[in-house]
Design brief:
about 350 residues; Rossmann fold; 2 domains; 14 helices
Length: about 350
């Protein structure tokens, strides 16, 4: 697959944002927040004096691993909740502190905080009749901005550059904590063998989830080859993790047993990961781990892992991508026809390449 962070000539805006104080209203999903780092990098490259991100509390551990972020502004409102009162209180605390606000989500409520905080310039895409809430409403050209990350980065560029679509997309890079990793090794009995990570969850729905029986079969084969398997995810994935590790030695179900910042360090410590199109897939990409990414109802063209170190498993059946939470046809063949043997062959082949000493200095 071509490198998702394409090699277009970089946009050289110099100090277009020099000295400006920026506020970004961030997205509500783990993967989107990781991809938003490409925008944060772009803003700092353009000379932004400071960068604050309005984000739900769960995202603080991810944002704190990004060198570009100067301040995390927690929005104490649950996903999908309007929450006018807390948004108003937050806006009052931000008044007079920022010169420019970029609103990444397209919902009406997401533009409220910068508007109520009276940030002079407020930029975002047209959506949900946000007239007045934004001072610059941009039309979303889905043909040119055909990836989520492109849409994010474009909002930080001059409109003419964004419209042309010819700009650099920096790859996310999350900082890792060696001391925290050592603690995790001790607490969970990890690191005796080289590790393969598995991420069976996908918050969007089952049409993005590779069968658990396939994960289990693959885990058993990898353990036979001498690997340790780490299953990562949130509390909702705990039962799925148990099904994967059931009856297997050297298999660890860490779903719900670790924090989001722990996942950054644990994934960075893995040789490879096997993952659905999920938020943790993007975390793995941002720590440089080799990725075996499985796509079903979604498209690798729209939300690819932002790394050149990935192999994409996607069948491109006539019914996909459908972008549905549940398979409309009831068979999920787009996932079931990607077999454990296919993944095992890919992991084995890639591991041979990863283990081959560099010949650059030979």
């Amino acid at each position: 697959m071509a490198d998702a962070a394409h090699a277009a000539p970089p946009h050289r805006a110099g100090t277009r944002l020099s000295g400006q104080r920026l506020l970004v209203v961030g997205p509500s999903w783990v993967g989107d927040m990781v991809m938003a780092q490409s925008l944060f990098m772009t803003l700092k490259q353009q000379g932004a004096a400071s960068l604050a991100v309005v984000a739900p509390s769960w995202s603080r551990p991810i944002l704190e691993r990004m060198d570009e972020i100067d301040e995390v502004v927690e929005l104490g409102v649950g996903h999908g909740v309007f929450g006018l009162a807390p948004r108003h209180r937050l806006a009052q605390s931000l008044k007079g502190r920022f010169d420019l606000a970029l609103v990444l989500p397209r919902s009406w409520k997401s533009a409220l905080v910068p508007f109520l905080a009276r940030v002079p310039r407020r930029v975002g895409f047209t959506g949900e009749h946000r007239y007045g809430l934004l001072t610059e409403r941009r039309t979303l050209n889905r043909r040119v901005l055909d990836q989520t990350v492109k849409r994010f980065v474009s909002l930080g560029l001059p409109a003419a550059t964004a419209t042309a679509g010819d700009f650099e997309i920096p790859r996310p890079l999350l900082r890792q904590d060696a001391d925290n990793l050592a603690r995790l090794h001790r607490e969970h009995g990890l690191g005796v063998r080289p590790a393969i990570g598995m991420m069976p969850g996908a918050e969007y729905g089952p049409a993005k989830q590779w069968p658990l029986a396939y994960f289990h079969r693959l885990a058993a084969e990898l353990i036979t080859q001498g690997f340790e398997v780490r299953v990562l995810g949130g509390p909702k994935d705990r039962a799925a993790g148990e099904e994967i590790v059931s009856g297997l030695e050297h298999a660890h179900n860490l779903c719900g047993a670790t924090r989001l910042e722990d996942a950054v360090d644990l994934l960075g410590d893995c040789r490879q990961v096997v993952t659905n199109d999920s938020g943790l897939m993007h975390v793995a990409a941002a720590v440089g781990t080799r990725i075996q990414a499985i796509y079903g109802s979604s498209s690798p063209a729209y939300t690819p892992p932002l790394t050149s170190n990935a192999r994409i498993h996607y069948l491109a059946l006539s019914c996909s991508p459908c972008f549905e939470r549940q398979c409309p046809l009831g068979h999920t063949n787009c996932l079931k026809q990607i077999t454990p043997d296919t993944l095992l062959e890919a992991i084995t082949a890639d591991q041979q390449l990863l283990d081959t000493p560099s010949r650059i200095n030979a």
